[in-house]
């Protein structure tokens, strides 16, 4: 029975990822990730959650990543039954006490001009720029879809927009 329990744990553990967070001022960036890309891919994505513990709104206005020539904020919209992406104009506002998710199917980070493939298990440095909090250095983990991410941040639900 113990052998079965150990085997079951070994099958589950690779899907679990420890949280990694980056904080500056009242802004906390939780679990920045990207997805593996084919060798010839010119674009990649970035996903993460942002929590604003402050009393004033802040705005994510841009950033950069060492893995790409450009980091842009994009939104996915359904137009005539077809998903289309477009740049987000003016940045993304994070209200006081709110958590926002940059995730697949909504607002997300688009990495343009990849300098090479993004490989599962590797990571790369980036920086997000906020109007009030300024520049925050982060690290994106490259993870395959389906990896289980943390669900809470200091008692606040992650994965839910407030």
UniProtKB/TrEMBL annotation:
Q: Does the keyword Transmembrane helix apply?
A: no
Q: Does the keyword Transcription apply?
A: no
Which Gene3D superfamilies has this protein been placed in?
PCu(A)C copper chaperone
In its UniProt entry, what is this protein called? Copper chaperone PCu(A)C
What UniProt keywords apply to this chain's record, in alphabetical order? Signal
* Recorded superkingdom: Bacteria
One Pfam family name is PCuAC
Q: What are the boundaries of the signal sequence?
A: 1-19
**Organism of origin:** Aurantimonas aggregata
Enumerate the PANTHER family for this protein: BLR7088 PROTEIN, COPPER CHAPERONE PCU(A)C
